[in-house]
Specification:
Chain lengths: 532, 302
């Protein structure tokens, strides 16, 4: 055997061997030794094939900025009082602006000094004179706004990751996308609604003291005593399960927040045989809880989650030790999910679902079955066409085509690429186009034979003449596929991947492998007529 | 076996006027349809909205489903049957919801009131917000634009600029006609269709380049002949390859179109139209454009 022939055969065999190794875990997952499964992953299936959820959540970063300004307002008020600066009020305007209303210029100057010293992130703007008062305007610096927004998204991503981890999904994907978007992929989720409600909850836990003196009727009519707000308490009828809401007036000021939690767990209330969530404060939280309960014995404390009151028990005595409970006629799943979100922490800003694609597992399996069936039928049709048209040479092309499919599958597995439904379509398309290189070569060979060349020579010049054409034609398609990969999203990328892989594999098999087969066939023989 | 006998010399170039009429007619039909229907029929990927694929255990019809959904304030939901069986439907709503109580849950519970529990299986939910839809649309257009730009550069580099112009004209021709076909047949354009368009671009170009390659080769061989003669000869010489490759590609796409199932149906339709048009354009559009360009530059130089 000539050196080149030997070398080429070994190369093709090695590729084939490697491919078989790479594909095996996909086909026979259960009967392979562990080291094999460790070395090669099975082909990843996209969510459209295996079922699951694809979510894009938008973090409402403007809310994060607003709530930062609100916090600063609290601090500013406290500082102004401490320093005995006379002011009328402090309020937030247009999301990122803060206004301090004072009575005269002298006090205004003091406010300026205070702001410059204590709140450097607030930039002083103009002041306006309105009806005898002076409004001092301040605005968060652009830099600070950027930081708050960026931090909010990063924090949200972290919190969501914690929740997903506790929810128990195998191989979830969480990624930050563009500025304020978070991509979440949960393969094989069986209860999409539950997943959405778990991920979408802001989970801002607050404790507020109930204002017993307020008149509920007035409050409902919109007349609230200053410093209070109207919330609704969620009630569940234990027998019927029907939900209702009771209005409740609470003090604006949040006495304690969920940030100070150390743990949250589901327990069962033995009286009603009903789950509740037991929460545990960290040392700072426990101390504060102790002070608050001591100062408010006899009053009711509302436990507020995302602006809904879950319960508002009367504080009977000072509670030290740092534990409390949230009850509210939960189902055990509700209690579990509540414990998860409390443990994972609250989102720094509310999130909105911008995109949701959920595919049920049965549809995914359907798609795979149909895709594979199309591949088989398409392949058989192409095989028949090639053999009828080119006879024995057609068989060579078919062998190249079959190897092509093996290589595509192997490369998908080795690169860890994700196979999607359009990806399956890409493979089908590749089958149709994969024979193109061989067709080009065979047509050239036929031309050469018509010119009276001997088989070996005809093959030689046929391959060399077709080569550049094939490269030109395929490189342009590859170019389109690469652009598709760069700008595509989700399933479209899957298509680009299989198309690119298919082109590379078909170049190799159609040019290299088919040539090798012909060389073997012609070696040491004196072939007079080529079956083509 | 041979489809095309050697030395076949069909006068493709001579029929280029007829071909131009056909092309222009097809393009016009598409454009008129697009104008009448107020632009491309974007699916929810690009327009935003909610799509729910529901499977019932027993056959039913769109009117019943629409009636069952009346209580939900959904605007004007479109309900259409999906696949071969009479028990699978797509419900499409323009509204999107970022709320926790998803539309799909509402739709499911509403349907269960009419069809009883256990009979309704939500198989697929797709909700795309308007902002995301806009982003996806601009990304898709960008992809097509950059693909064309890349091709222009590559073909100019490998061949000559005039070849690149012919290739790009042929590509736009194919994409516009396919887009028109989508409009005429009331099919929706969504994300995978962009992939199909790019595949069409790739395929059509593949075809065109192979003819161009032959033209370039023959230009060197027969440099005394008339340019349009060389073009025509090159088209004929590559004709059997063109027909065979398009034939095998069409076979597999037909398999996908017939057997691939509803989710991939529009994708296969785009490919089907694209491959037929792409093959036609590499014979009747891309090459004659070269001749046209040649004549124009001759007029300019003389």
């Amino acid at each position: 055997m000539s050196k080149s022939l030997k070398f080429r055969s070994v190369l093709v065999l090695l590729c084939l061997l490697l491919s078989v190794f790479a594909i095996a875990p996909t086909l026979l997952r259960n009967s392979l030794p562990q080291w094999w499964l460790d070395a090669f992953d099975p082909i990843h299936l996209g969510l459209d094939l295996q079922g699951g959820m694809h979510l894009v959540l938008g973090v409402d970063v403007d809310k994060a900025v607003e709530s930062r300004v609100d916090t600063i307002i609290d601090q500013v008020e406290a500082q102004l009082r401490e320093k005995d600066i006379v002011f009328k009020r402090v309020e937030r305007r247009q999301g990122d602006r803060l206004v301090v209303v004072v009575y005269d210029k002298a006090e205004g100057a003091k406010v300026d000094a205070l702001m410059a010293d204590e709140f450097p992130s607030m930039e002083g703007e103009t002041f306006t004179d309105s009806g005898g008062y002076i409004e001092k305007n301040y605005r968060l610096s652009d830099n600070e706004i950027e930081n708050i927004k960026d931090y909010a998204v990063r924090q949200a991503l972290e919190t969501l990751r914690n929740r997903v981890d506790q929810f128990g999904v195998s191989e979830p994907t969480l990624q930050r996308q563009s500025d304020n978007r978070i991509l979440i992929q949960l393969p094989g989720v069986e209860d999409p609604e539950r997943a959405i409600s778990l991920l979408g909850k802001t989970a801002r836990l607050e404790f507020k003291i109930v204002d017993e003196n307020a008149n509920i009727q007035d409050a409902l009519a919109g007349k609230l005593p200053p410093g209070t707000q109207l919330l609704y308490e969620r009630n569940v009828n234990r027998k019927t399960g029907a939900e209702s809401e009771t209005p409740l007036v609470v003090k604006d000021k949040t006495v304690l927040t969920g940030d100070l939690l150390a743990d949250a767990n589901v327990r069962i209330d033995t009286r009603f045989n009903e789950p509740y969530v037991a929460i545990e404060f960290n040392s700072v939280g426990a101390k504060r809880f102790d002070q608050i309960t001591a100062a408010n014995v006899g009053k009711r404390m509302a436990i507020v989650l995302d602006d809904t009151v879950y319960s508002a028990p009367v504080i009977r005595e000072r509670i030290s030790g740092g534990s409390a409970q949230i009850s509210g006629a939960f189902t055990s799943q509700e209690a579990t999910d509540l414990a998860i979100v409390l443990r994972a922490g609250s989102l720094p800003a509310p999130v909105k679902i911008l995109e949701n694609r959920t595919v049920g597992p049965s549809l995914g399996q359907d798609s795979i079955d149909r895709g594979i069936r199309s591949i088989w039928v398409g392949a058989v049709l192409v095989i028949l066409a090639m053999i009828i048209y080119y006879q024995m040479s057609g068989v060579v092309a078919v062998i190249a085509l079959s190897l092509n499919l093996v290589f595509i599958a192997a490369m998908l597995a080795m690169f860890g690429a994700t196979l999607t439904l359009p990806g399956l379509a890409g493979i089908v398309l590749t089958i149709g186009m994969a024979v193109d290189a061989n067709v080009l070569i065979f047509e050239r060979v036929r031309e050469e034979i018509r010119l009276g060349r001997a088989p070996k020579l005809a093959l030689d010049s046929g391959y060399s003449k077709a080569f550049l054409t094939i490269i030109d034609a395929n490189l342009t398609t590859l170019l389109a596929a690469l652009v598709l990969f760069q700008f595509g999203t989700g399933p479209v990328r899957g298509f680009a991947v299989t198309l690119s892989i298919g082109i590379i594999a078909s170049l190799f098999t159609a040019i290299f492998v088919s040539r090798l087969i012909f060389d073997f066939y012609l070696k040491g023989r004196d072939i007079k007529r080529l079956s083509i | 076996m041979q489809l095309i006998k050697p030395n076949t010399n069909i006068d493709f170039v001579g029929k280029r006027k007829l071909a131009f009429f056909v092309s222009i007619a097809l393009i016009l039909i598409g454009i008129v349809s697009l104008i009448v229907k107020g632009g491309p029929n974007y699916g929810i990927d690009f327009a935003g909205g909610t799509l729910v694929q529901v499977k019932f255990t027993e056959p039913t019809d769109a009117a019943t489903i629409k009636g069952a959904l009346k209580d939900l304030d959904l605007g004007n939901p479109v309900v259409q049957s999906f696949g071969e069986d009479q028990n699978e439907f797509l419900i499409r709503v323009e509204r999107t919801t970022g709320e926790l109580q998803g539309l799909s849950a509402q739709i499911q519970s509403t349907l269960e009131k009419t069809f009883k529990k256990g009979q309704v299986d939500i198989r697929r939910v797709e909700m795309v917000g308007p902002q995301v839809g806009k982003d996806l649309r601009s990304k898709g257009l960008k992809a097509i634009f950059y693909a064309m730009l890349g091709i222009l550069v590559y073909v100019s580099w490998r061949f000559e600029f005039r070849f690149a112009v012919g290739a790009i004209v042929a590509l736009m021709h194919d994409v516009i006609i396919t887009l028109g076909a989508f409009s005429v047949f009331n099919k929706e354009i969504d994300l995978p269709i962009i992939a199909a368009f790019l595949a069409i671009i790739g395929y059509s170009l593949n075809d065109t380049i192979i003819v161009y390659d032959r033209i370039r080769e023959n230009l060197g061989k027969h440099n005394k002949e008339d340019f349009s003669f060389i073009v025509n000869r090159s088209v004929n010489e590559t004709l059997s390859r063109t027909l065979l490759t398009s034939g095998t590609t069409l076979l597999v796409i037909l398999a996908l179109f017939i057997l691939g199932g509803g989710v991939i149906h529009n994708f296969a339709f785009a490919m089907l139209v694209g491959v037929v048009i792409g093959t036609y354009s590499s014979i009747f559009v891309a090459s004659p454009i070269l001749i046209l360009w040649q004549k124009k530059s001759k007029v300019r130089t003389s």
